[in-house]
Amino acid sequence: MKQINSYVWILSVLLILYILFHFLFFPDLGSEKALLEENQKQFVLNQFDSFHEKLNMDSTINYDSLLNIDYAVMDNYFSCCNSDSAFSENLKLAYKALEKENLELFLDEACWYKESIFWLDSKWILIEVLVWSLFGVFCSLLFHGSEAVRQNKFDPKEIAVHYAKLIYSPIITVIIIFSGNVLINDGAINVEGISYWVIVLSFILGFYSRRAIDLLDRIKDLIFRSSEAKKDEDELKLTLQGIVKFDSSIVRPPLKELSNATILVQSASGEFQSDILKPDSKGIFSLYGLSPDEYSVSVELVTSTKEYEAQTTLKLDENTADLANELILIEVTDNIDDGDDG
């Protein structure tokens, strides 16, 4: 019971500090990014129409002076945007372009930081996530702890688990929220556009901290799935190795010509055919990245006087991969035309 009371005190202090910081000490920090409302769009468009009417009615009006007046009117209208200078400057540029269609397009897509009781802009969103996840953890501890006390099942040994949750739950919550956002935005971390849902999600992840760990594990599987799949695929790839030799019956074989031999590997299924391979000066060659299958290997060597060839069929699997397969060259024909002695 004493432990439950301490949780109540800590949660109360945390909640009071949260309220003081948000409403008393730093009320100006509260903002959230949002699209313009219809009445805001209409205000700018009406101002734009009025601007052009004045120009058309009186040619003596100074353009820049009138434009500055309209800028001041819009700055005053959007004064609750927490000094969102980027929005203000972009609005003025679109307004100054003197094309209503472009201005309407800008207003449909423009976002600005408006007043909010929460700190939801990119600078302070992390604090909201941490604090609301702590709120969730404390509420969870109070709920489950009070239920355990009511049923006389409260175990003091669980207090260590409670303290651990207070430490890892906020960190896990931050990781999950930003990881989900990264996946949604194709790998780009982007906290803009996050609204009240982040408050709700942070609280839920803190309340169900064990579920949050399971969710983090799923995110891990999602992130590393492609790399692990590629790794598994690579593990199935085999290497064919061989060595080209001359038949022992050949007198004075042209050993120096071995590196000029051409080798072609083709699968029995017809799904794979290699590029032309060349052995080294000792006749050794290798081909990586083959799937288990039956392959035919053909070798051809043409010298200035002779032609040699070798051909074999072998089954490549985990047991035969990396073994040196011998391909014995035999003489095929004499390239020299003996002519007609008669």
Number of strands: 8
* Biggest beta sheet summary: 6 strands, mixed
Give the structural class: alpha+beta
Total count of domains: 3
**pLDDT < 50 stretches:** 185-194, 335-342
Instruction: Kindly report the spatial arrangement of strands forming the biggest sheet.
Output: 4-6-7-8-3-5
- Label the overall shape: flat
C-alpha termini separation: 122 Å
Calculate the mean pLDDT score and round it.
Answer: 77
Count the DSSP helices. Answer: 9
Helix amount: 40-55%
- What quaternary form is this? single chain
Strand content: 15-25%
Gyration radius, in Å = 38 Å
Outline the structure in words.
- By secondary structure, the chain is an alpha+beta fold.
- 50% of the residues lie in helices and 19% in strands.
- The chain is flat.
- It has three domains: 4-13 and 119-231, no CATH class; 31-115; 237-334, Immunoglobulin-like (Sandwich).
- Helix 7 (159-184) packs antiparallel against helix 8 and helix 7 packs across helix 9.
- A six-stranded mixed sheet has the order 4-6-7-8-3-5. The protein has a two-stranded antiparallel sheet with strand order 1-2.
How are the SSEs ordered, and which strands pair?
Blueprint: H1 2-25, E1 31-35, H2 38-57, H3 63-77, H4 85-96, H5 100-109, E2 111-115, H6 125-150, H7 159-184, H8 197-207, H9 209-236, E3 238-246, E4 262-267, E5 284-290, E6 293-302, E7 306-316, E8 324-334
Parallel strand pairs: 3-8
Antiparallel strand pairs: 1-2, 3-5, 4-6, 6-7, 7-8
Helix pairs in contact: 1-6, 2-3, 6-7, 6-8, 7-8, 7-9
